[in-house]
């Protein structure tokens, strides 16, 4: 474990294979690096799942535990796949990378993912990459091959495989490598590829060296959090840790690795190579960003998550429950027929218990699912009292619960409202819903089927306009995707 100050939060550690305390050099300042995209194609919902879950964890650290989190992300804008895409489209590789990076940031903004404080692109950091590799060459930890490539010598790094247990026979896998697990930190020159000149020869960086060089340039010899999808654990993160420890002469470079589980289609990994992806823009045509985020909140960040219509429907249903509750609270506290209020100490006690339970759940490896379930139980209890206890009026207790729900969901990154412009103002909708509710209530008393049918037509037309009406004792509505 690192030296420093325990902050009272526990996170899963893949080396220890258990939850360990987060210990920071400064109890309120932490560094965080996320592996960003290789910008050769549009981002899909597998990427959305990863970055939304990482955004949720970052928000918890900042908004719940009051950490000053310095965030950085690396963008791979030179890579085999980018070069291939450039050749296929007969476009300069830099144009390809810039176009898909711009699209990526638009997708992230539409998902309400906070942008990193520092964005580091490989193409802008060739000097840092060269210095990093030169340091490894000077320490005799890498070797240059006949084709001008440079490989990391895993036989000289005794703790290689600490993130994921690796069995190395010690035998070379081809004519270039000395050992099977050795990996390229530099790829030798090829005439049809972009290249850079260095002291050991011309070529371009290997994939793993990019992040190590950029992180070391930004954060130095040690990093608090390093994050990415579970597919990056090996070989990418394993190789990053090895070459960074070797370069800095330390046994531990990143203190905490945060790995997000895959988003699957019926137990099949979602990937571009399998051609089974849904783009983020397509996702947001079908569902709101809040709906997808709620689905992510209901899932453990480390575990696989299965994408389905049922999963998204559940996310939408829960978002609607919270919205309906907030609408009902607004109506409840503005009830003009009651002129005397009191406290409901049972509700206030339930609120305090949920606050304490949720804090403990978030301290325990960011258990957001437990938080959502406890808040659903809380608003259910409040709803019951608001509707059934007609002899008493508890505006303070109810408003405090609503305030807590909004506060927590906001801290998790939910907006609870649409960002797009609406054709009909909320006040007009309020008037229509109130009028319909009055008509429907009278029709129910007189059993007027014609008026009830007319009310149903209004409800269905409003739903087609993305406004869903909730018929209860006091009718309310929410905007839906």
Automatic annotation (TrEMBL):
Keywords: Aminoacyl-tRNA synthetase, ATP-binding, Ligase, Metal-binding, Nucleotide-binding, Protein biosynthesis, Zinc. The keyword Membrane does not apply. This is cysteine--tRNA ligase. Its EC number is 6.1.1.16. Pfam families: tRNA-synt_1e (PF01406). It catalyses: 2 L-cysteine = S-sulfanyl-L-cysteine + L-alanine; S-sulfanyl-L-cysteine + tRNA(Cys) + ATP = (S)-sulfanyl-L-cysteinyl-tRNA(Cys) + AMP + diphosphate; tRNA(Cys) + L-cysteine + ATP = L-cysteinyl-tRNA(Cys) + AMP + diphosphate; S-disulfanyl-L-cysteine + tRNA(Cys) + ATP = (S)-disulfanyl-L-cysteinyl-tRNA(Cys) + AMP + diphosphate. The lineage of its organism: Eukaryota, Metazoa, Ecdysozoa, Arthropoda, Hexapoda. Its cofactor is Zn(2+). One of its GO terms (biological process) is cysteinyl-tRNA aminoacylation. Residues 28-314 form the tRNA synthetases class I catalytic domain. Belongs to the class-I aminoacyl-tRNA synthetase family. One of its GO terms (molecular function) is ATP binding. Mitochondrial cysteine-specific aminoacyl-tRNA synthetase that catalyzes the ATP-dependent ligation of cysteine to tRNA(Cys). In addition to its role as an aminoacyl-tRNA synthetase, has also cysteine persulfide synthase activity. Produces reactive persulfide species such as cysteine persulfide (CysSSH) from substrate cysteine and mediate direct incorporation of CysSSH into proteins during translations, resulting in protein persulfides and polysulfides. CysSSHs behave as potent antioxidants and cellular protectants. InterPro entries: Cys-tRNA-ligase (IPR015803), Cys-tRNA/MSH_ligase (IPR024909), Rossmann-like_a/b/a_fold (IPR014729), tRNA-synt_1_cat_dom (IPR032678), tRNAsynth_Ia_anticodon-bd (IPR009080). GO terms for cellular component: cytoplasm.
């Amino acid at each position: 474990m690192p030296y420093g100050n325990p902050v009272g939060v526990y996170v899963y550690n893949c080396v220890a294979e258990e939850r360990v305390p987060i210990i920071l050099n400064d109890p309120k300042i932490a560094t965080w690096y996320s592996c960003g995209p290789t910008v050769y194609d549009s981002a899909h919902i597998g990427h959305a799942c990863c970055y939304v879950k990482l955004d949720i964890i970052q928000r918890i650290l900042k908004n719940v535990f009051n950490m000053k989190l310095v965030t950085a992300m690396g963008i791979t804008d030179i890579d085999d796949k980018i070069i291939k895409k450039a050749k296929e489209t007969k476009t300069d590789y830099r144009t390809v990378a810039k176009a898909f990076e711009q699209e990526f940031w638009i997708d992230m903004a539409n998902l309400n993912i906070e942008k990193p404080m520092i964005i580091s692109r490989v193409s802008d950091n060739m000097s840092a990459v060269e210095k990093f590799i030169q340091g490894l060459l000077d320490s005799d930890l890498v070797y240059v091959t006949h084709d001008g490539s440079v490989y990391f010598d895993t036989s000289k790094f005794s703790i290689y495989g600490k993130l994921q247990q690796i069995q190395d026979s010690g035998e070379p896998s081809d004519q270039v490598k000395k050992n099977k697990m050795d990996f390229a930190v530099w790829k030798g020159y090829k005439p049809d590829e972009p290249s850079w000149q260095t002291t050991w020869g011309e070529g371009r960086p290997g994939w793993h060296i990019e992040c190590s060089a950029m992180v070391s340039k930004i954060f130095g010899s040690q990093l608090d959090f390093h994050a990415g999808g579970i597919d990056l654990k090996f070989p990418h993160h394993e190789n990053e840790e090895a070459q960074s420890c070797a370069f800095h002469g330390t046994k531990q470079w990143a203190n905490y690795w945060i790995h997000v589980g895959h988003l699957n289609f019926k137990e099949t990994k979602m990937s571009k190579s399998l051609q089974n992806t849904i783009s983020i823009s397509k996702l947001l045509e079908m569902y709101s960003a809040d709906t997808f985020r709620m689905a992510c909140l209901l899932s453990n960040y480390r575990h696989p998550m299965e994408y389905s219509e049922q999963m998204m429907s559940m996310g939408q249903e829960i978002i609607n429950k919270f919205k309906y509750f907030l609408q009902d609270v607004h109506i409840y506290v503005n009830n003009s027929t009651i002129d005397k209020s009191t406290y409901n100490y049972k509700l206030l006690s339930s609120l305090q218990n949920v606050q304490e339970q949720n804090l403990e759940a978030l301290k325990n490896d960011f258990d957001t699912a437990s938080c959502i379930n406890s808040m659903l139980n809380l608003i259910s209890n409040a709803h019951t009292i608001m509707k059934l206890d007609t002899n008493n009026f508890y505006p303070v207790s109810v408003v405090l619960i609503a305030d807590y729900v909004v506060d927590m969901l906001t801290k998790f990154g939910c907006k609870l409202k649409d960002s797009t412009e609406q054709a009909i103002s909320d006040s007009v909708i309020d008037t229509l819903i109130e009028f319909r509710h009055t008509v429907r209530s009278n029709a129910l008393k007189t059993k007027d089927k014609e008026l009830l049918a007319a009310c149903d037509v209004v409800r269905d037309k409003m739903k087609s306009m993305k406004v869903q009406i909730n018929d209860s004792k006091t009718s309310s509505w929410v905007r839906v995707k």
